[in-house]
Amino acid sequence: MPNNERTFQPSSPEEAAELFEKAVRQHSRRLHTIARAIVGHRASPEDVVQQAVLNLFQHRHRYDWREPGGLLKRAVVNEALRLLRPPKMAMVSDEQPDQSSTPVEGMIENETTRHVRDAIAKLPDHFRAALVLCEYENLSYVEIAEALNASVPQVKTWLHRARRQLARMLEPYVAPKDVQRAEQDSSS
Amino acid sequence: MSVSETDLELLETYLDDQLSAEEGDALRRRFASEPALVGAMDQLRQERELRRGVFASMEIDGGTDQVVRAVRAAATKEIVRGTRMRIWRQVSAAAACLLVGTFAGWLARGPASAPTGPSDTRVVANDPHASPNPNISLIDDEPNERRSARGGYNVSITDDFGRVLAVQHFDTLNEARQFSNDLGQWQNKQRQLRNSNIKLIGDEF
User: Fold this and answer.
1) Chain A CB contacts of B75 below 8 Å
2) Is residue A129 one of the residues assigned to a domain?
3) Distance from CA of B35 to the nearest CA of A (A)
4) B58 to chain A: which residues are within 8 Å by CB?
5) What is the mean pLDDT of chain B?
6) What is the pLDDT of residues A132-182, one digit of tens each?
7) Of A71, A60, A66, A59, which is closest to residue A24 (Cα–Cα)?
8) Backbone angles phi, psi at B134, to 5 degrees
9) Has residue B74 been placed in a domain?
């Protein structure tokens, strides 16, 4: 992809390494959080991010590097979802502690947060990925659709179903507001 | 008033800030007359904040240096590979030029596929009366009846593979020998000229 007014390409491996290093340092925290939110306990978020960045580095000629942050995030999402695809990965037992948790995190995490985190981990992979990109990254439906290689209606469906599933799973733990659903009215 | 799934989805899209301006205005007008809708939105906001807190708790600062090191190593590997390929291409090009030049020189100096003249021939049959040049010989193994039928003598010129290139007939032995000697002298002179790399301005032949 040649350099012109509409695209940008690093011209040498050295320039590419500088560009990547700057982008990784700028977005590292969010990249690792996205990875962690999607893969949960099933993989190391550091490994996910590293592999995603390396894949992107090797195929950097295919992309426009005017917005490296967006490319990195999409790469991390794709890599995380790829890792979760069958064949099954080595599952880490729920009994084992979070691989990336620190003692301080463990102390301040309350029970509700733990329940919410566990519930999020139980969502289907694409539901979870869509939720992370929407509520943590604040991406638009169009951007989420591009990142997940899906359509906008599909993304809306995933988000809605993810939130409904979480609401049902967390009902015992989260005090509900006075919300009446159509199905409750019909059953009474 | 109940909140339908459709309204719940609408509220979620509103909280995602993905409604158009008109859709947002229409929804906000409904808030004034539908308190259940307001209650549902508060509930959705609460659930949303809970999830945001969980995502924030997942933030980790580590791993940056690891990724940066990996990228630098990949870049270094690429630079080294590029340099090696460049050197290999240069060496290959030089070797190819050498090979082509050697082959061209061999073609220019080596034995031709077609005979270029008497200097490229070999003797088929030796004749003590023939010129000392091995490329030219009197055919003396011709059956007598053929010689007696035609009369005279034949001088043959052959190539390296023994193939007869030309045969010249003479009525007398002296004429055949003279021809053979003249041809042999010419051939020797050609060979000398080639070996000594001297060019003739004039040629007595």
Assistant:
1) 13-14, 16-17, 57
2) yes
3) 10
4) 33, 36-37, 117
5) 78
6) 999 999 999 999 999 999 999 999 999 999 999 999 998 887 665 444 444
7) A71
8) -70, -15
9) yes
Q: What single letter denotes the amino acid at residue A178?
A: D
Locate B28 and state its tokens: 């906000």
**Exposed, middle or buried by CB within 10 Å (0-12, 13-18, 19+), for A37?**
buried
Phi, psi of B159, deg, nearest 5? -100, -175
Q: What pLDDT sits at residue A16?
A: 84
User: Between residues 65 and 124 of chain A, which touch chain B (CB distance below 8 Å)?
Assistant: 100, 105, 109, 112-113, 116-117, 120
Task: Count Cα neighbours of A157 within 13 Å in the Cβ-side half-sphere.
Answer: 5
Alpha helices in chain A (DSSP H): 13-39, 45-58, 68-84, 103-108, 111-122, 125-131, 141-148, 152-170, 182-187
What's the pTM? 0.59
**Spatial CB neighbours of B18, under 8 Å, sequence gap ≥ 6:** A140, A141
What CATH number corresponds to the domain at position A156?
Answer: 1.10.10.10
Domain for residue B68, yes or no? yes
Per-residue pLDDT at B123: 43
- The C-alpha atoms of residue A170 and residue A165 are separated, in whole angstroms, by 9
What residue has token string 């010689």? B147
The mean pLDDT value for A91-101 works out to 47
CA atoms within 13 A on the CB side of A162: 27
Domain contains A125:
yes
Work out how many domains chain B is built from and give that number.
3
